[in-house]
Specification:
Blueprint lengths: L2 H14 L6 H9 L19 E4 L15 E4 L1 H5 L7
Antiparallel strand pairs: 1-2
Bound molecules: zinc ion (ZN).
Length: 86
């Protein structure tokens, strides 16, 4: 297995014990290699620290559920975003 596949596999394993995380979050988590897009350090798989950020605000016509419009951030990092909605 190539390196990236192994990493993906490990991330998936990590997600397995957390059924409350639906598919979309899992996909984002893997896409971001388990890292926050703001500070680039690892995200904890705990709900209070895993925020979904809408890249394009819903109020401006951004999609609420498309993964292309979402990224996962730390709660604290989310606060630094000007258009934080949650
Ligand atoms: Zn962060």
């Amino acid at each position: 297995m190539e390196k990236q596949k192994i990493q993906e596999h490990l991330l998936r394993q990590k997600m397995k014990g957390l059924p409350k995380y639906h598919d979309l979050k899992s996909k984002l988590f893997i896409k971001q290699k388990g890292k926050c897009t703001v500070c680039n350090t690892e995200l904890e798989l705990e709900e209070h620290d895993l925020h979904e950020h809408h890249i394009r605000p819903i109020s401006e016509g951004g999609s609420k559920s498309k993964k292309e419009n979402l990224e996962l951030l730390h709660k604290e990092c989310h606060r630094t975003k000007p258009n934080a909605t949650t």
